[in-house]
Each structure stands twice: as structure tokens, then as C-alpha cells.
């Protein structure tokens, strides 16, 4: 079970390591681009908002993972998360996107 801390708050947000690794890529991309974004998930319903100030990050994020090895990333899941990050609704931590079986 991974955790993320947002801002100066001491309340850790617990998310499964595999699930946390994917939005971490999206958050890092948005921070590198100095773009505003929101990150939301269910159970309990929570949203974080980030808006850069004068080109400098104004709210720190910290991601902590229980497992020492990073999980293999599902590129399709990252793409779907990035797509939601660029929408009006912001990044929604959705269930893992799996490739449909062909046949």
C-alpha cells in the first residue's frame, strides 16, 4: 500500500502501489510542464488541486511506495489518466485499463 502526501498536511492518502505508480507519472509530467491539474479518486472521494505560482511549484507532493521495486507500468492506463488530466474534469484515478482480448 503506497501513500502520497500533499502540501503541509500530515494526512497520508493510501493507494495501492500499482495504482499509485500510474498517476505519479501523470503528476510528474504535469509538474514538469508547469501545468495546473486536479487529481481525484473514489473511496473516500477526494480531490487535490495544484496550480503553479510564478513558475515554481507551490504545493509539494510526496509519493511513498511499500514495495522497493517499481511495478511495470501499463502504458494504456497512463495514457487514459493523461487524457483525463487534460480534460475539464481533471485527472480521475480510474480502474486499470486492460487491453481487450482480440479474436
Quick synopsis:
This protein has helices spanning 17-32, 75-85, and strands at residues 2-6, 13-15, 37-41, 46-50, 61-64, 91-92. It is of the alpha+beta class and 103 residues long.
Beta fraction: 15-25%
Distance between the termini: 36 Å
Elements, N to C (H/E) = EEHEEEHE
Provide a count of the helices.
2
Shape: globular
Category from helices, strands and their pairing: alpha+beta
Instruction: Please give the radius of gyration in angstroms.
Output: 14 Å
Number of β-strand runs: 6
Which ranges are low-confidence, i.e. pLDDT below 50, for 5 or more consecutive residues?
none
Strand line-up of the largest beta sheet: 2-1-5
Q: How would a crystallographer describe the biggest sheet?
A: 3 strands, antiparallel
- Approximate helicity band: 25-40%
Overall average pLDDT? 77
List keywords for this structure.
single chain; about 100 residues; alpha+beta; 3-stranded antiparallel beta sheet; globular
Topology of this protein?
Blueprint: E1 2-6, E2 13-15, H1 17-32, E3 37-41, E4 46-50, E5 61-64, H2 75-85, E6 91-92
Parallel strand pairs: 3-6
Antiparallel strand pairs: 1-2, 1-5, 3-4
